[in-house]
Amino acid sequence: MFEIEVNNLAKYFDERIIFENLNFVAQKGQKVTITGASGKGKTTLLRILAGIAAPDKGSITFNNQIFNGQTARALRQQIAYLPQGIDLMVNNGVELAQLLHIDYKLSIPYLEKLLLQPSIIEQPFAAVSGGEKQRILVSLILSLQRPILLLDEPTSALDKNSAEKLMNLIWSNPKITMVSTSHNPEWEKRCEQVIRL
Q1: What is the average pLDDT across 81-93?
Q2: Arithmetic mean of pLDDT, 42-51
């Protein structure tokens, strides 16, 4: 399990402050969500935690190891990141699994827990709904079995029942340390910590 510590983090676009002096700790196994109005930097913060974007000030540590150019490659192997509105350059879940270097069959138990038939992994993304696609992506991300999970609006395309199944699945694993963004009040209620930007 991994602990994530954010220290005095700041991000600016041109001269606009996105956020600054941001501090929080996601303890090992804790589920954390980030809330706030649009433009407050929720997605940007997740991208920084994933090592895709860089902060302008401050630092991030994973289990007391600073996330920097020397440690980034190894630490990224501990992170599973699901962005919002991802534009996939693959045709279906099987091809995405190949891209992620995992056996797509590992996703089947997750698909079933998210109320999907296993065969949907082979269907073209163009032929499935937005909610089905989101659950396929989550199933593949969970198949990586990484200790750190970063999820950007994971229930945005899901109905109430599907969102509840997803929450039950993620919260059933106490070893995962999760940082997410969400506008879903039920998701927020389940999180042990809520960061408001």
Answers
A1: 84
A2: 94
